[in-house]
Amino acid sequence: MKNKRDCAGIILFGTAGMYLVQYTYFKTIELSNVSFATILQFTAPFFIFIYESIKNKKVPAVSTVILLFMTILGVVFIATKGNFSNLSVSLEALLLGVISAIMIAFYSTYPKKLLKKYGSITVVGWGMIIGSIISNVIHPIWKIEGNVNAKSMIQVIIVVILGTSIAYLIYIASLNYISSSLAGILTAFEPVLAAILSVAIFGLKFSFIEIVGFVLVFVSIFILEKRL
Questions:
Q1: What is the DSSP letter of 166?
Q2: Over the stretch 74-95, which tens digit does the pLDDT of each residue have?
Q3: Domain boundaries, the chain
Q4: Of the residues 49, 108, 140, 210, which has the fewest C-beta atoms closer than 10 A?
């Protein structure tokens, strides 16, 4: 990249859109639990809507906001399974969770111009390299704490390749075809698919509250997809 502005943009994307998203999300899990972190993560569409409303000088329809609330409520039901005691957490966890959602909104809206010029592989690839450099400056890879063995390394590799690299690449590439708002909302399918896979793989059963959550997510996203 010979354009200095684009280089600065990639650095910003790698810092906020890659490193901070991952750090704040996993730190929120560490300080609270997966349910709480997941719920806060899926408030990102609100921040995307706020940004795009300001940018386009257009107030979203009340029905759209209601549908967005329905989506998040569905995620809450799925993530907590009706046990709302999991949502009692520290202020630090709350702040980091909100920052995580804001950073998700950032990487959903910011890189569109870069994508048009360089493509998703280049943008995501350089973003991850920059994010990993920052991460290693703060916490070098050779100072890993905990029990490092073959099993843990395989788990890390799976998270890096499937849960991060491929997931980011597909998500960022989708921004070439759909709006940031719709892309953000569609991520609500993540806990739905996780729940379905847990049933298929581990033989778990859905509770009534989870089924209600599925219905809320599917119905609201189906309607929103037609509008956005």
A1: I
A2: 888 888 877 777 677 788 988 9
A3: 4-140+147-226
A4: 140
Tell me the C-alpha distance between 112 and 56, whole Å. Answer: 16
| DSSP 8-state symbol, 60 | P
Tokens in use for 79?
């993530």
Q: Are 45 and 68 in contact (CB under 8 A)?
A: yes
CB 84 within 8 A of CB 159: no
Report yes or no on whether pTM surpasses 0.85: no
Give the model confidence (pLDDT) of 169-206 as tens digits: 999 999 988 888 888 888 877 777 777 777 777 777 77
* Angle of the 91-109 helix axis to the 34-41 helix axis, nearest 10: 40
Q: Which residue has the tokens 């859109």?
A: 17
Cα separation, 48 vs 108, whole angstroms: 8
Single-letter residue type at 47: F
CB atoms within 10 A of CB 87: 16
| Pair 58, 227: CB distance under 8 Å | no
The structure tokens listed for 141 are 């890879």
Q: Residue 210 corresponds to which tokens in the numbers above?
A: 């989870």
Q: How far is CA 124 from CA 8, 109, 115, 131, 140, in A?
A: 14, 14, 9, 10, 22
The DSSP code sequence of 195-214 is: HHHHHHHH-----HHHHHHH
Q: What are the tokens at 221? A: 């996203």
CB distance 1 to 7 below 8 Å: yes
The one-letter code for the residue type at 187 is: T
CA angle 146, 155, 159 (to 5 degrees): 110
